[in-house]
Amino acid sequence: MDLGKYAFEVISAWGISLAALAALVWWSLRRDRRVRAELERTERDHG
């Protein structure tokens, strides 16, 4: 695949996009763990 003179821009855009997606997945998983732990505490305390 030849990207010509725009190779740097295209590869940079892909890299930034992948980094943003990875950050969103990490943030979602982190929040999921925190919310699940809070739900389990609430259920244990009130259930």
From TrEMBL:
GO BP terms, alphabetized: cytochrome complex assembly; heme transport
Membrane topology: Single-pass membrane protein
Membrane spanning stretches: 6-29
Function text: Required for the export of heme to the periplasm for the biogenesis of c-type cytochromes.
InterPro entries the UniProt entry points to: Haem_export_protD_CcmD
Family listed: Belongs to the CcmD/CycX/HelD family.
Organism: Limimaricola litoreus
Protein name, as recorded: Heme exporter protein D
